[in-house]
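A quick aside before the break. I want you to see a complete sequence-to-structure record at least once, exactly as it would be stored in a machine-readable document. Don't worry about memorizing anything.
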Amino acid sequence: AVAYMKQHNENIESYITLLYQPLKTTMLKEHSLPDDQYQRSTWLTWQISIDKIRELYKQQGEKALELLRMCAYLAPRNIPLSLFTEWSEGKIDELASILEAYSLIEEGDKPTDRNIHQLLQEVLRLQSSKQADAEKDIVANIMEILLKFFDIPFLMFDPKSKELWINAASNIPHILSACSYPTKLTTSNKFRILINTAMILIV
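That is the input. The structure line, written in tokens, reads:
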């Protein structure tokens, strides 16, 4: 809320008006969130920011929100931005800046990592699960990104590649998280490779 008001020079009165618009109440019902006051108000706050990103940034905003939805299926802390460099065609810093401006993500332990709130992850996953094949497509995209980023096929056949193994090991939480959701991909080759790699790294 504070990030939104600073970004758009809104005062608290006008922001509260936005927060309790009938449209927002309708959206809340459509997404069937738990009947919890904290979760309702928090979700509405994020939804206002998401709507504004779509309105102001158009295609770039949609790409930033796609990034946000993918982050919902990774571990919440220390997501490396470099993971998405190729996917974003080198524009990952710009996309991350849009989300940071509205406090949808924040800097992690390293300047190159980002954190996302776990409740925001839950809400984003709930939204994706209600759209036909949306969740499957997001998780498939993440698996593909992880396989390329960590060069996992190469890792599996060259245990002497110490630098690659260290990089992959530090990101085990993201590999396990991406593989933990009950999509139709649990029998795919990508899923098996990621899980096998994670198990080897853990051992």
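Two observations worth writing down. The two ends are 43 Å apart (CA to CA). The first strand starts at residue 79 and ends at 80. We'll return to this after the break.
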